[in-house]
Amino acid sequence: MYCPIRYGLTRRGQKRGLSVDVPVRAKRILSPMSSYREESVLDSDQLSFIELVSDEVCIGVYENSFGDLSDCVFITNKGLHILKSNCRKFVSYLEIVGIQTPADKVGGTCICLMISGGDEVVIEIKNGNGRFKDVFEFLRFLDRVIEDQAA
């Protein structure tokens, strides 16, 4: 069971006036997670797992299994590069029109992104301790970035 979140307006129903950069959001929200590594600690071999477009900059990577980039999410200033086994998918922040969150607050590990055009993309964020699951912090990061993009 998922709970949908739609975007365009803030919780108070007003558009935000100031936008915070994606790297700043990542630093504040994602950096405390032990499974997140900033771009500065990645080497060129690790960065070669994704193909960046012009003006796209890698900010960091969330690894579901430490040291295993075959199951991870690269965070960039333009969107998310999702790697799962041999599947690679890019989702732009501007394409995300909603998010379905895990209803299971204890065992939930997946975020379902609703993409413009009706597609859905599932992101697995597996780690975290006890009631502090990384999936909810990652959700908070996406929520803030998407609000900023809509402003």
Whole-number mean pLDDT = 82
Strand portion, in percent? 35-45%
Please state the overall shape, judged from the principal axes of the Cα atoms. Answer: globular
- What is the ordering of alpha helices and beta strands? EHEHEEEEEEEEEH
- The strand count comes to 11
How many H/I helical runs?
Answer: 3
The strand order across the widest sheet is 2-3-4-5-6
Gap between N and C termini: 29 Å
Alpha-carbon Rg, integer:
15 Å
Spans of at least 5 consecutive residues with low confidence: 1-19
Structural class: alpha+beta
**Largest β sheet strand count, sense and barrel closure:** 5 strands, antiparallel
Q: Which percent bin holds the helix content?
A: 10-25%
Outline the structure in words:
- This protein is of the alpha+beta class.
- It has helices at 22-30, 44-47, 134-150, and strands at residues 2-6, 36-38, 58-65, 68-76, 79-84, 87-92, 96-102, 110-115, 120-124, 128-129, 132-133.
- Strands 2-3-4-5-6 form a five-stranded antiparallel sheet, covered by helices on one side. Strands 1-7-8-9 form a four-stranded antiparallel sheet, covered by helices on one side. Strands 10-11 form a two-stranded antiparallel ribbon.
- β7 (96-102) and β8 (110-115) form a beta hairpin.
- α1 (22-30) packs antiparallel against α3.
- The model is unreliable at 1-19 (pLDDT under 50).
Descriptive keywords:
single chain; 151 residues; alpha+beta; four-stranded antiparallel sheet; 20% helix; disordered N terminus
What's the short story on this structure?
With 151 residues, the chain is an alpha+beta fold.
